[in-house]
């Protein structure tokens, strides 16, 4: 139960951060491009890489802090950061086919399922 609380706490902060960044980018740059999503995805990718790199090198993060920051905060801020880290890890482990497939399936499959969901949801 304690682990779940750490994830929930981080998740609530990440969700609030995502919302705040979306509002900020709309105020700064308008709505002609999804700047908020881009900003949180890029920031999340940088932060997950930084946190994993630091935690391996200096044992900076306790298991509770990993749950709070990586699983909770970054998970709610963006799942793109987890996708990015998993793809990089597969490539570093020599599983290049898995890394490429992860990119293709997540992107093309995600787009296709979004279209399918929109189509099913709009059927009268």
TrEMBL record:
<feature type="transmembrane region" description="Helical">
    <location>
        <begin position="67"/>
        <end position="85"/>
    </location>
</feature>
<feature type="transmembrane region" description="Helical">
    <location>
        <begin position="97"/>
        <end position="120"/>
    </location>
</feature>
<keyword id="KW-0997">Cell inner membrane</keyword>
<dbReference type="GO" id="GO:0005886">
    <property type="term" value="C:plasma membrane"/>
</dbReference>
<dbReference type="GO" id="GO:0046872">
    <property type="term" value="F:metal ion binding"/>
</dbReference>
<dbReference type="GO" id="GO:0062054">
    <property type="term" value="F:fluoride channel activity"/>
</dbReference>
<keyword id="KW-0813">Transport</keyword>
<dbReference type="InterPro" id="IPR003691">
    <property type="entry name" value="FluC"/>
</dbReference>
<feature type="binding site">
    <location>
        <position position="78"/>
    </location>
    <ligand>
        <name>Na(+)</name>
    </ligand>
</feature>
<keyword id="KW-0812">Transmembrane</keyword>
<keyword id="KW-1133">Transmembrane helix</keyword>
<feature type="transmembrane region" description="Helical">
    <location>
        <begin position="33"/>
        <end position="55"/>
    </location>
</feature>
<keyword id="KW-0915">Sodium</keyword>
<comment type="similarity">
    <text>Belongs to the fluoride channel Fluc/FEX (TC 1.A.43) family.</text>
</comment>
<keyword id="KW-1003">Cell membrane</keyword>
<keyword id="KW-0479">Metal-binding</keyword>
<keyword id="KW-0407">Ion channel</keyword>
<dbReference type="Pfam" id="PF02537">
    <property type="entry name" value="CRCB"/>
</dbReference>
<feature type="binding site">
    <location>
        <position position="75"/>
    </location>
    <ligand>
        <name>Na(+)</name>
    </ligand>
</feature>
<keyword id="KW-0472">Membrane</keyword>
<keyword id="KW-0406">Ion transport</keyword>
<dbReference type="GO" id="GO:0140114">
    <property type="term" value="P:cellular detoxification of fluoride"/>
</dbReference>
<protein>
    <recommendedName>
        <fullName>Fluoride-specific ion channel FluC</fullName>
    </recommendedName>
</protein>
<comment type="function">
    <text>Fluoride-specific ion channel. Important for reducing fluoride concentration in the cell, thus reducing its toxicity.</text>
</comment>
């Amino acid at each position: 139960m304690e682990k779940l609380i750490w994830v929930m706490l981080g998740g609530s902060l990440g969700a609030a951060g995502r919302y705040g960044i979306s509002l900020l980018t709309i105020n700064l740059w308008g709505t002609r491009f999804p700047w908020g999503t881009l900003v949180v995805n890029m920031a999340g990718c940088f932060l997950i890489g930084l946190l994993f790199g630091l935690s391996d090198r200096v044992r900076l993060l306790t298991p509770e802090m990993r749950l709070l920051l990586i699983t909770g905060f970054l998970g709610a801020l963006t799942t793109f950061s987890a996708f990015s880290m998993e793809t990089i890890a597969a490539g570093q482990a020599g599983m290049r086919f898995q890394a490429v497939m992860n990119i293709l399936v997540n992107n093309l499959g995600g787009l296709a399922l979004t279209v399918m969901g929109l189509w099913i949801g709009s059927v009268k």
